[in-house]
Structure formats: structure tokens, C-alpha cells
Write a structure and sequence with these properties.
It is a single chain. The longest helix has 19 residues. The chain has three domains: about 250 residues, Aminopeptidase (3-Layer(aba) Sandwich), CATH 3.40.630.10; about 90 residues, Glucose Oxidase, domain 1; about 80 residues, Arc Repressor Mutant, subunit A, CATH 1.10.10. The two termini are about 50 Å apart. β2 and β3 form a beta hairpin. The strands form five sheets. The chain has an eight-stranded mixed sheet, sandwiched between helices. The protein contains 13 helices and 18 strands. It is of the alpha/beta class. The structure holds zinc ion. The site of zinc ion (ZN) has 3 residues, from loops. The site of zinc ion has 3 residues, from loops.
Length: about 450
């Protein structure tokens, strides 16, 4: 069994393009670590409004002077060629060449990660310093890229629960020769699954998905539509190795039981962690799970650098989308801290139940030993009633605690006696008792 950092060191340099041999090799290696089902979706398959791309390979790419001095060479880094570049071979003028060379917007010494999946063009990537030094009239370019039919691959690790409903963990494995985005999320998720597999049976199943970004999520969801209703919550794992505190991004619903359970558990463990709304911290595959027609409340956990800075949405850490996103910027202790946090968030979600009232009207509090004398404890008196007001089959105990800014223990102080007397029961699914909503 390899450690998270050992897996990173073994896999990070692979050319893990969207549909590619490098991606497949990395996924096959992960499947040796845990029992994994690999789903294959062929190129050209319609996946909702999208189409699975072709497999892309490039064995040779370079830029050289006409007298044969090599300036950029794919052999040095898979990032030197634009991912999904068209093939090209020939002599080009400096002016034409500059239209096809890409540098990093703020790291002059770094080679950027550039991909063009739909906007077909050829291109090479290099440090800005190198591009700025080009002074010849023409150069020779070769990009031996190939497009062919392949299969987009999704790895799935599933631990069944006591019920069919499940929680989804996800991370993306594509991005050639990069680590924090998002091989870090992949290895954290894998290590979480090793612990879940070895532990007691959870109440809700736990499903871990590894796929190429965006198209992988859509491919999985579109091919497993009946499962969507069972996905009660989710957490996208990304950028978990760099040196920054945790950030938790809420789901589209923002107040789902998954949001409630995870936010409350995070606040207890790491009060300094940042919590923000969807699309305000970092955008990734959680968008597909939260999207219309899907609406799985999927949150996202990352170590984005100061998400309150507007620039951090596009540069979540300085080495983002460059060849500097390498094993030097991640550490085993940080990966382990993220793994332990994910396990704590999962455990909190596993406790989540809706509180269903089997009474109508305000409870006769003193008759059930729930009366708090407002003269002696006005705050406790108010809190008890505020909690009881919210037990209506649409909220969990964590939701109520968050809504009232009190602890889970304070909520359970009121709920426990009601559970004992059969006035409240627990449910995996919402059971709204408001007659205006239809169900009772
Ligand atoms: Zn990325």
C-alpha cells in the first residue's frame, strides 16, 4: 500500500490528458490500491448536451531554430504542448509563431498548462522569458499529435451503507504533470476510502468518483441517472496539498442537510477555516452535480489561498496551472490533515437525519418536561421554543443548530426527550408536515 505522497511521486509526471493513455495508466495504478470499478464511455458518445472527446496523444513536439537548436521540447515536460493541440509540422515566421506560443500570465519563468478541447488550434507552451528572447525571422515547429477513438474512463469506489442513499466524494485525475490540481484531491479521496472500507458499515453508502474534469462528471451522471436521486450530498476534493488553511464552498442549495452537517463539523474542528457560497471560492466538477436537473448538494473542500481576494478565483494558489505545480508544493502532513477532516465531515453527514414531528401545534412543554422558566433562563426558554418551531420534517438537527447559531448538543437537549416519547422520529428523507406542502 503506497502513501498519498508516494502515489503522487509515482503518477504526477504522466501526461494525464482528458482521454489519453497517460490518464488511463494513472487510473489503472489507483485501481491496484482499492477495489475500483472502471466505467468506459467511448469517444463520440452523447452525454446530455456534450459529446465525449477523442483520445489525444502526442509523442513528439518541439520548436527549433532553422539550424537545429532545440528551444522547446516535449521530452522536457508534457506541458510544452497545448493539450488537444492540432498536429503541425513546418517552418513558420516569428510573427505567425507568436500566435501559437503560450506563456503564464504572471509567472515569467513557468510553463503554463493550456488546453484547447473545442477551439481547435496548434500550440506550444513555454516560459515568457524564452518567448521574449526569440529574435530569428523563422523557426521550425513539429507537433506529432494524434486524434483517435478512445474511451473516457471513470473510476468508482463504492462502500454500501445500511440504506440505498449515498454521499459522493469526487476528484479529477486529468491535468498532465501537475500535482495540487488535482492529483492531491484524488489521493486524499483514495486514502479516505481505504479507511471507510476498513471501518464499520456506514448508514449512507459512500461513493468515490475519479474522472477527467467536467466531461467525466457529465459522462458519469448522464449514464447513471437513476442514482442521482440517491445522492443525498457530496464533496468535491481539490487542491489539498498546498500551504493554506481549508476552505469549504457550499452547494447550490446552501442550506441542504449536507451543507448543514459539513459546515457544523468544520466549525467545530477548524474554526479558522473559510466557508463561502458556490462559485465564490473555486469552480470545478461540483458545478455539474449542483446543476439544473441534477441538484446533488455537492460542496467543495480545498486549500485555496485567501478566497476573499478576487484574483484567487482564477489563481487559487501561485503555482496554479503551471509546471511549478509539482510535488515540492505539497506535503504528506497537509494531505493527512485534509484526509482526517474529510473523514470527520463524512462521519457528521452519516449522522444526518430529518427530524419529523408527530404532533401538531406547539408542544405542551411543561407536560413533557421541556419547560424552561423564562424568569430564570430567558435565553434557554427562547432557544427551546425556537428549536421546537423548526422540527417540521424538513430540517436535520445540524440545520437547526446552524440556523440558530447554537450547538448540536443544545438542539439534542430538546430533541432527545421528544424522540423518547415518540413525538419526533428520524428520517433519511424529508417528510414535510406542513399541510400546504401536500405531504403529512
Ligand atoms: Zn485545473
Amino acid at each position: 500500500m503506497s502513501s498519498m505522497l508516494e502515489l503522487i511521486e509515482e503518477l504526477w509526471r504522466l501526461p494525464r490528458h482528458l482521454v489519453s493513455d497517460g490518464y488511463d495508466a494513472a487510473l489503472a495504478r489507483l485501481a491496484e490500491e482499492v477495489p475500483m470499478t472502471i466505467h468506459e464511455v467511448p469517444s463520440g458518445t452523447k452525454i446530455w448536451t456534450w459529446t465525449v472527446p477523442e483520445k489525444w496523444s502526442c509523442d513528439e513536439a518541439y520548436l527549433e531554430t532553422l539550424d537545429g537548436r532545440r528551444l522547446i521540447d516535449l521530452a522536457d515536460s508534457p506541458l510544452h504542448v497545448v493539450s488537444y493541440s492540432l498536429p503541425f509540422e513546418g517552418e513558420v515566421s516569428r510573427q505567425e509563431l507568436l500566435k501559437h506560443l503560450h506563456s503564464h500570465p504572471h509567472l515569467a519563468q513557468a510553463t503554463p498548462f493550456v488546453f484547447k478541447y473545442y477551439q481547435r488550434d496548434w500550440g506550444l507552451c513555454a516560459p515568457k522569458t524564452l518567448i521574449d528572447s526569440l529574435d530569428q525571422e523563422s523557426y521550425r515547429v513539429k507537433i506529432a499529435a494524434r486524434f483517435e477513438a478512445g474511451t473516457l474512463k471513470i473510476g468508482e469506489v463504492f462502500v454500501p451503507g445500511e440504506v440505498e442513499d449515498c454521499f459522493v466524494l469526487a476528484a479529477h485525475l486529468d491535468h498532465p504533470a501537475q500535482v495540487n490540481d488535482d492529483l492531491s484531491g484524488v489521493v486524499v479521496g483514495l486514502d479516505v476510502m481505504r479507511t471507510v472500507l476498513a471501518g464499520p458499515r456506514p448508514h449512507y453508502g459512500v461513493r468515490f468518483l475519479v474522472f477527467p474534469e467536467t466531461q467525466g462528471s457529465i459522462a458519469y451522471l448522464s449514464q447513471h441517472e437513476p442514482l442521482i436521486a440517491q445522492m443525498r450530498g457530496g464533496l468535491f476534493l481539490e487542491m489539498l496539498g498546498n500551504d493554506a488553511p481549508h476552505s469549504l464552498q457550499l452547494s447550490h442549495q446552501a442550506h441542504s442537510p449536507a451543507d448543514g452537517a459539513l459546515v457544523l463539523a468544520l466549525r467545530q474542528r477548524e474554526p479558522e477555516a473559510y466557508v463561502g457560497a458556490m462559485r465564490t471560492i473555486i469552480d470545478n466538477d461540483e458545478r455539474q452535480f449542483n446543476a439544473p436537473g441534477v441538484r446533488v448538494p455537492m460542496l467543495s473542500l480545498s486549500r485555496v489561498v485567501d478566497p476573499q481576494l478576487p484574483a484567487s478565483r482564477f489563481y487559487p494558489y501561485p503555482q496554479y496551472h503551471s509546471d511549478l505545480d509539482n510535488p515540492e508544493i505539497v506535503s504528506q502532513p497537509r494531505l493527512e490533515a485534509s484526509r482526517d477532516l474529510v473523514l470527520a465531515l463524512l462521519a457528521a453527514f452519516d449522522q444526518t437525519r430529518y427530524l419529523v414531528n408527530h404532533y401538531k401545534g406547539e408542544i405542551f412543554a411543561s407536560g413533557f418536561g421541556l419547560w424552561v422558566d423564562y424568569r430564570q433562563d430567558p435565553e434557554g426558554h427562547r432557544r427551546h421554543f425556537r428549536i421546537m418551531d423548526r422540527i417540521d420534517g424538513t430540517r436535520s438537527a445540524a440545520d437547526i443548530a446552524l440556523e440558530l447559531d447554537c450547538s448540536l448538543e443544545q438542539v439534542m437537549e430538546v430533541v432527545d426527550p421528544l424522540l423518547e416519547k415518540g413525538l419526533v422520529s428520524l428520517s433519511d428523507r424529508p417528510q414535510p408536515s406542513d399541510p400546504h406542502l401536500g405531504a403529512a
